[in-house]
Amino acid sequence: MMRFAPSRDFYIPKGSVKIADKAGDGVAYIYTSAKGRPAAIAFHGKAAKPDWHHSFASAEARERKIREHFEGRRRWAEWKQERRDERK
Length: 88
Known about the structure:
Blueprint: H1 8-11, E1 17-20, E2 26-32, E3 38-44, E4 52-55, H2 59-87
Antiparallel strand pairs: 1-2, 2-3, 3-4
């Protein structure tokens, strides 16, 4: 039985704006939902499935969530690098 494996493009809404983290591997796409609310979907690295996909009460809340996501990805990368350095 063959299964459908959607690519990242499948999840990204049409007309969304890409925001990439310059210091990490996070990327978010912002758009306005069908109900007119600010919304965003976020990925990391080469992941095909989104880390999260939410609509927000305000654009400020959306920006805060995206900032938290990017900071979390940077912390994860730092932690990972520390563990690699410990093994050397």
